[in-house]
Amino acid sequence: MLNSRLKVKLGNWLKERGPWSPIVISSRMRLARNLKDFFFPHHADEKQLAEISSLIRDVVINDPALKKFTFISLEELPFLDRLMLLEEHLISPDFSAGGKGRAVVLSRDGRVSIMVNEEDHLRIQSLLPGLQLLETRRMVDEIDERLSLHLDFAFLENWGYLTACPTNVGTAMRASVMMHLPGLVMTKRMREVVDFLSEGGTAVRGLFGEGSRALGNLYQISNQVTLGESEEEIITELSEVCREVVKEEEKARKTLLREDEMEFLDRVYRALGTLSYAKKVSFEEAIELLSTLRLGVETGLLPPFDGIDLNELMFRVRPAHLQNFIKKSLPEEEQDIARASLIKERLNLQGG
Description:
The chain is of the alpha+beta class. The protein has two domains: 12-251, 2-Layer Sandwich (Creatine Kinase, Chain A, domain 2), CATH 3.30.590.10; 261-347, no CATH class. The chain has helices spanning 46-62, 79-87, 93-96, 133-148, 182-186, 190-199, 231-259, 261-277, 283-298, 310-316, 319-326, 332-347, and strands at 24-33, 69-73, 103-107, 112-116, 122-129, 155-156, 160-161, 173-180, 202-205, 218-223. The strands form two sheets. The protein has an eight-stranded antiparallel β-sheet with strand order 2-3-4-5-1-8-10-9. Strand 6 (155-156) and strand 7 (160-161) form a beta hairpin. The longest helix has 29 residues, at 231-259. It is globular and about 65 Å long. The model has no long low-confidence stretch (mean pLDDT 91).
């Protein structure tokens, strides 16, 4: 990587396919934990934040079961590395800005990360391709159990795990599934689906979580309730919801092909034409156009691009990934030029 201090393999999950792919991109599980006798991060001073970080660092370094993990102070990471981790959904947008006492713990395969002193003292999360909520839960539970041998977590019998945000109290577990839903967007049914899910207690967010936009027709669907439900109930309910959304997306794609195939075909080939001839492409435009190409391939309107995974390419055009790939730091306009060239090269497009 470009000036990188990261010693993990990023993007492994992008190269694989899981259950309910390609509509379901990935599953993520997150546990929030806080240490007893310490203020939550937003009330703790720098001395306390440093003490918390040091405690967790000692556990990671000294526990043989955690030897596959690396502890990294966020202040030691260059901005581009932090942006890489954000683009991989291993850290949150707020956390990527840095700050005193913040650190990240990463597994060597890049599937598990722990944010230290984000909104809570610990945010343990795992990431896998496709709909694999049970497996992501198993992964975070293993880490949680190991850390609990050394750390005293804030927990009350009647309330469960205590967290900085009251909505996370209880299991303190957030399960989320990233889905590619262009069919529902193009048939103008996405708002209807979002409203229905929200009424049932399921949150629908954009590409980078709360407050972000759904670029490239990518949506994160997650549980809202953590208190009064068991982890098993949360996972079962969210899995069922996601399977229903997959069915609705499949119906929407069939509707596009049946009722307005020429309009659909025109949209796909306009995206192909733009990417073939554009001299510069912004990240937002690139991910939208690649989303349309991906849909074209999945519905059979376009043949597969030889040896190219559009899912992976939708990540490689992100600013940090792009600069890391070409091994050069670039201002935004030059990134747009390099991105257009990269897409043409990777897809073997013959435009000018």
